[in-house]
Write a structure and sequence with these properties.
Strand 6, helix 6 and strand 7 form a beta-alpha-beta unit. The chain is globular and about 70 Å long. A nine-stranded parallel β-sheet has the order 7-6-5-4-3-2-1-9-8. It is built from ten helices and 19 strands. Helix 3 runs antiparallel to helix 4 and helix 7 packs parallel to helix 8. The protein is of the alpha/beta class. The longest helix has 18 residues.
Length: 439
C-alpha cells in the first residue's frame, strides 16, 4: 500500500534553481495550496547527456541544505532519473562505479547501462544512488529513454519495469523497511504493482482533457489504479511569449483533484505557479485542491481498498451499474465514480464568455444511474436513472468539477488552513458530510 504523502506532487523541468524552489514552496503555502512532495526534474543534475547522477552546483549550491529545508517544511522529495546512458566519467562517483564494474577509471570509459546485471545494479544502488538518498532524496522518478524493449542480455526483459521493481522494493535505500514509492513512465502492464505511473508530457487541449479523463478512469480495467496525468498549462504567464490558457488549465486541475494521484508540473513553456494566477483562477484552483486535501481520509481508505482488492478508486460507470446501457454511452465515458460515494463529471467545455474569462457558464451533461442514496437507512430513497444538463459556473465550489455525493457519510477531513498546507503540518478534524444527490 502506498504512502499517504505520495498524492500531491510539484515539479518543474529546466530553469528552477535553489532560490526558485523555495519561492515555489512558500508561494503555494502562502496561497493555501496543499503540497506533499517536491520533485526535482532533470535540472537537478549536471548534464553530460540526459543521464546524470551529480548535483549541479550552479543551480543548487547547497542541495543538502535545500533538501533539509524541504523536509523541515513537511515535504518529501524525489529526483528524476534517465538511466539509459549509464554512468559517465564526469560523475562525482564515477571512479567507485567503474572499479566495481572492472573498468579502469583512468580510461574514462562510460559504465554502460546494464540493469539485468546484478553487479551493475548493486554498484549503482549502493555506490551512486545511496549517497544521494543519504543526503535527503526520499524516492526516485524513473523517466524515459530505456524504453520498453529488451535489456542487453535478457530478451524481452522490460528495463523500465525492472528498474521500478528493484527501486520500489528497496525504496531508495537497501534494507529500508518503509513502504515502497516510485513515480515512473509507463513500464507496460504489470507496472501497476509499483505505485504511481504517469503519461508524460501532454499537449493540453479541450479534446486531450476528455481523453485524459477517459484513460485515467479506465486504467483500473488493467489494474493500474494510480495513473497521474501531468497537470500543466501550455501557455505562459508572460503574455509576450504565449498567451496562457488559464481556463483550460483550471479545468485540468479540477479533474486532477479527483484523481488518485495529482502532479502539478511545469516546463519552459508552462509555469505551474498557481499563486501568481489572476484571482478568479487562483481561487478556483485553491478551492478544488483544498477539497482534494480535505478528502484525504476518504481517499486513503480507497487506497487501502485498492491494496486489498485491486479495484482502483476511479471507476467507470459500468462498475457501478454494469447492466445499464447508458453506463457505456458517450456521456458516461467522461464521468466516473470516485469510490462508492462520489460521482465525478469533469467539465471539458469552454465558458460562454470566451477564452480566459471567469464569468460565463459551461454546459455539462451528467448521467445519474438509479441508486439507493441512503442504503444504510431503514427507509432508503431510490433515485431513478436520468440524464441532466447543467450550466456550470467557473467559481461555484460545489460544481467546480461536478461532484455529487451518493450517500450520507461520516468523513474525517483534512482542512486547508493558511500556512498549514505542507505535508504533515496540516491539522485534522472530523466533519459530518451529509448531501443528497443534486437533481
Amino acid at each position: 500500500m502506498w504512502s499517504r504523502w505520495g498524492q500531491v506532487h510539484q515539479g518543474k523541468w529546466w530553469t528552477m534553481n535553489e532560490t526558485e524552489t523555495k519561492e515555489a514552496v512558500m508561494g503555494l503555502a502562502n496561497a493555501s495550496f496543499p503540497l506533499d512532495t517536491f520533485i526535482f526534474d532533470m535540472n537537478w543534475h549536471i548534464k553530460p547527456g540526459w543521464t546524470g547522477w551529480t548535483w549541479d552546483t550552479n543551480w543548487y549550491p547547497d542541495h543538502v541544505g535545500l533538501l533539509s529545508w524541504l523536509h523541515e517544511h513537511g515535504l518529501y522529495t524525489a529526483a528524476n532519473i534517465h538511466d539509459a546512458e549509464g554512468v559517465m566519467a564526469v560523475e562525482k562517483r564515477y571512479s567507485e562505479m567503474a572499479q566495481a564494474m572492472g573498468i579502469d577509471p583512468a580510461s574514462n570509459q562510460t559504465v554502460a547501462f546494464h540493469i539485468s546485471n546484478q553487479t551493475y545494479y548493486n554498484a549503482l544502488s549502493n555506490l551512486v544512488m545511496k549517497p544521494l538518498a543519504d543526503e535527503g532524496l526520499d524516492f526516485w522518478w524513473t523517466d524515459w529513454q530505456q524504453g520498453l524493449g529488451g535489456t542487453l542480455d535478457v530478451t524481452g526483459l522490460n528495463p523500465t519495469i525492472w528498474l521500478n521493481h528493484l527501486r520500489f522494493m528497496n525504496y531508495s535505500q537497501p534494507g529500508s523497511t518503509r513502504r515502497g514509492q516510485i513515480l515512473s513512465r509507463y513500464g507496460g502492464l504489470g507496472n501497476s504493482r509499483y505505485a504511481v505511473g504517469f503519461g508524460g508530457d501532454v499537449s493540453q487541449t479541450w479534446e486531450s482533457l476528455m481523453f485524459m479523463v477517459y484513460t485515467t478512469m479506465t486504467s483500473t480495467n488493467v489494474a493500474f489504479p494510480y495513473w497521474a496525468q501531468e497537470i500543466m498549462d501550455n501557455g505562459s504567464l508572460n503574455p509576450l511569449t504565449r498567451p496562457p490558457q488559464l481556463e483550460l488549465f483550471i479545468r485540468v486541475t479540477q479533474f486532477g483533484a479527483f484523481a488518485a494521484a495529482y502532479t502539478n508540473y511545469g516546463n519552459p513553456g508552462s509555469d505551474p505557479a498557481y499563486w501568481l494566477f489572476p484571482t478568479p483562477f487562483q481561487m478556483a484552483a485553491q478551492r478544488v485542491l483544498a477539497i482534494r486535501s480535505m478528502l484525504l481520509p476518504y481517499r486513503y481508505n480507497l487506497a487501502r481498498f485498492t491494496y486489498e482488492t485491486g479495484l482502483g478508486s476511479l471507476r467507470p460507470m459500468y462498475y457501478h451499474c454494469p447492466m445499464c446501457p447508458d453506463a457505456y454511452n458517450e456521456t458516461s465515458k467522461h464521468q466516473y465514480m470516485f469510490g462508492d460515494s462520489l460521482l465525478v463529471s469533469p467539465v471539458y467545455s469552454e465558458l460562454t464568455c470566451g477564452k480566459n474569462c471567469s464569468e460565463g457558464t459551461a454546459n455539462a451533461t451528467i448521467w445519474f444511474p438509479a441508486t439507493d442514496s441512503l442504503d444504510n437507512s431503514s427507509t432508503p430513497i431510490t433515485w431513478v436513472e436520468v440524464n441532466v444538463t447543467l450550466a456550470i459556473y467557473f467559481d461555484d465550489i460545489l460544481l467546480l468539477c461536478v461532484v455529487f455525493v451518493f450517500s450520507l457519510s461520516l468523513w474525517e477531513t483534512d482542512p486547508l488552513l493558511q500556512k498549514h498546507t505542507l505535508g504533515d503540518k496540516r491539522l485534522h478534524f472530523l466533519l459530518l458530510l451529509m448531501r443528497l444527490p443534486y437533481l
